[in-house]
Amino acid sequence: MKLWPQYGLPVVLYDQIGCAASTHLPQTAGDKDFWQESLFVAELDNLVDYLKLRDGPGFHLFGQSWGGLLGVAFAARQPRGLKRLVLASGLANIDLSEKGIQLCRSGLPIDVQRVLEKCVQEGDYKSQAYRDAIAVFQKTFVCRADPLPEELIMSLNHLGEDPTVYGTM
Length: 169
Fold this sequence. Notes:
Number of helices: 8
Strand content: 5-15%
Protein name: AB hydrolase-1 domain-containing protein
Strand order of the largest sheet: 1-2
Number of strands: 2
Largest sheet: 2 strands, parallel
GO molecular function, one term: peptidase activity
Distance between the termini: 28 Å
Helix content: 40-55%
Domain AB hydrolase-1: 9-94
């Protein structure tokens, strides 16, 4: 995240509601009526207002993976101040994305596949077995950097601590 010191571009790493340093709502685990795309778009809208990004030079929005879907939904509303939407590794369709994830998992060692399948079926996202197995998946298909970026490690650690959003969606 060297954009600020190198180019004078401030960067806000947005922790979506229920993730990392944002508000956690474990009592809503499994509540698919609550955890809707519209909630996340509204929260992003609130953050843009709070940071006063609509006026002045405007802002750029980067959406990666699930954040890409949110970025598209947010940008479709043509919010004042949004200058550019940048998407990376976004998914256009949840069902196709899930099929792609299953295809990737099938390429992992069988013992890792079994652990992931068992833990997902049981909603067990906190166990060390799950953390170890998902680390293999992440290292194989998500980020091959060695060492992993500090921000990614922090995000993955938080995901394991409170799987409310991940487990519901």
